[in-house]
Amino acid sequence: MFKDIVTDVFFDLDHTLWDFEKNSALTFDKIFRENRIEVALPDFLEVYIPANFAFWKLFREGKITKEALRYERLKSVFDDLKYQVSDENINNLSEDYITHLSSFNHLFPNAISILEYLKPKYKLHIITNGFQEVQSKKLKNSNIHGYFDQIIDSEMAGVKKPDPIIFNLALNKANARPETSLMIGDNLEADILGAQAAGYHALHFNAHQGPKHDFCEIIDDLYEIKTFL
Q1: Cα–Cα distances in angstroms (integers) from residue 174 to residues 10, 22, 28, 140, 182, in the given order
Q2: Which terms does the record give in the GO molecular function aspect (predicted)?
């Protein structure tokens, strides 16, 4: 579908190539044990995962700061679970989480094989809303940094996806044109609609088994990218 028109492929990182939920769970398991937090991990994650999505949405929309995101997503979950944790402990957990998250490096199935397939044919890039210091470590520790020509993050751009500024910055840095660029990501609002508004083609990786839609083609496995490229 895109083989004859696309020259540059832009990937989201978290929830698209890098298995955020698996790596996040491993991180919480580690830091809970080290900080003696006596909460069952499955109970915590059941509340934390949707809360984290909600706080990230607020962060994307500029309604909360990075510091508030990191504190409030933990505070709200502990409150919901009625588990008493001091502000000092929450801040320590927040710091430990950021410190250790990038040390885990699980990727989605077929991530490496699809990057190997694409690399000789296209220029590959990353556009991520994640924080620069963390995202760089994720890419390097999971051994995929070398596949990408340009890595654009929201701190560099000064805005977050779906703002067109970050997509236009990515085009400028990659020396690419929107009509020959494809964005692949998991978030309909940030990745797909944001990219399309900037003139990109888009392919939605349905990592969360979300509802079907007609905005673009949808894949459930990264291997399916071969169908389009």
Answers
A1: 10, 31, 36, 20, 12
A2: 5'-nucleotidase activity
